[in-house]
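User: Here's a protein and a ligand (magnesium ion). What would the complex look like?
Assistant: Let me lay out the input and then the predicted complex.
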Amino acid sequence: SDPGGDLPSDKRHRPPPAEGRTLSADRRLYERHFPLYKQPLEVGCFSLDARRNFFNDHRQLRYYVEPRRSPDFNLRDGYTSRFIKRDDGVKEKLDHMLRWILENRHKMQNSNSSSCALGVDFVTWRGHLTKVLTTPYETQEGWMMAACKFRGSIYISEVETEQARENRETRSERQEEMMYWGYKFEQYTCADGADGTPDPGGVVNTNEAFCTVVQTRLADHKLLFSGEVDCRLKDPDAPPAPGCYVELKTSAEICTPKQRSNFHRYKLLKWWAQSFLPGVPQIIAGFRDHDGIVVSVETFQTSKISQMIKNEYNCWKPTVCMNFCSDFLTFVKSIVKEDDPRLVYLFSWDPRRDVTYTVHRDSTHTFIPDWYIKDMTS
Ligand code: A3P
Ligand code: MG
Ligand code: MG
């Protein structure tokens, strides 16, 4: 049958209604050549102190100190007596990045036209992009991303899903403790100054953070995003940032072929996506046993991870991640057209489903604060 048969030819094949458009996350659709991804350029950085106060400088940047040949790191030490945990119920959205933008607007390559004040297509957190990149391979957790356009740039801020909130509020005591282990490993391997030594007797405070702000381009999308950086190499002759940055990780020790395969298939995907995006070249991993004792420390070159996993059957592919991300950003651009920060488009994805969206005006999803709009407009 011909559903448009009674219509004049110019009215046939009408596009579906706006909120009916969706984006498939089927990995088979994204096996194309690797898209252009420009070397990320650090345009600035900022620090958050023990009380989550913002500073437009690198005061929280730490320096990697190589452990001895057989380290004696007990990741359980100090839990809970020397642990101050950031309140992850407080949603900061893009606020710290927006603060950085206001204080560094002059540094941004301004594309003189007033239609785009920052000269970028997207402003977001690196962590949000990591979630988008890994979507074609994610089978457990969905996501929601709020997006709005302001002065020509689209801002993307994650919204916690019901399931994520439920998981966060019902974590087991073991899970809570294991979340500490990653930060404890950082304390064992990082010093505050280039000539300092780590202080494993100190307090682990997860409010403290050092963040890089990078500019790059994925296909035809100009991106500005910020990501937390664990530490840098102390060698003053190391390449300039982000080339000198190091991502620290912990993982369960690998004892069986099955464990190795799972590590390659699931963990290395997340590690690669997180570090590839901001151009962090190395990942240093502490492998620990069931009791939180580090049994070995290994370095992974981000650029070599895709080679390492190629022998895994039916494994993830960087090109699928990057093409999906590029197509997602194209999809967002095609929908977020109106320049109004109070108009929020909420993109949702659940495993085995397509990306869908809903539109919200002046709702609780509005996330660009008035102080940002006022300062940018003045
Ligand atoms: P590990 O990476 O060693 O697991 P990051 O590695 O991104 O710098 O994060 C530092 C630590 O924060 C992690 O150490 C982990 O302990 C904790 N963490 C980060 N993201 C998490 C998440 N989604 N769920 C649980 N813990 C998380
Ligand atoms: Mg970190
Ligand atoms: Mg880390």
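Summary: Confidence is low (pLDDT under 50) at residues 1-5.
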